[in-house]
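thoughts on both lines:
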Amino acid sequence: MIEGLQLRHHSADEAKGILDQLVDLYLQVYAGGGEFYSEDRYRRQLGLHMQRVGWELVTAKIDGVLVGYIYGFPLPPQTRWWDGIHEPVPPGFTDEDGTRTFALSELLVHPAWRRQGIAAALHDELKASRPEPRTTLLVRPDNVAAQMAYRSWGWSKVTQLQPNWEKAPTFDVLIRVADPSSSD
């Protein structure tokens, strides 16, 4: 672990106080990513996600500077998370009850701080605090570094999904099931 790395959990109310920092870091990470990665779209997404019951954020700071974060929320029974999923999927795969699946929505680290274990530390910190038996996320198929990291952390691809948001790319749907023999 990096010397001086501080991880901190935040509720949605606490995160409102650092909203501009979260957006600024997002824009640095996705600079040049195109219209889908715009400030306006991300502020709307983040604002909607922060309203979700059980939303949780973990930030990573070094010397008081935000260098990364991860956030997500449990999927409610009438979730739209699975809208646009590509068939076939296992029977019952998209059934949600509010306690089955935690959706990991963002995991990002400032480019200058990558490949130093910060993403893994954020991932493990958030996962350790979640009671849901499975976690899902969406990752671009061409994001090789993220794909490799997630696979090394025990994630598996199930299918693909294209959200019905304007200019949304197609993503791989990854799942990580909690090990029933651990307290994870």
Summary: Residues 5-177 form a domain with the Aminopeptidase fold (CATH 3.40.630.30). The first helix runs from residue 12 to 16.
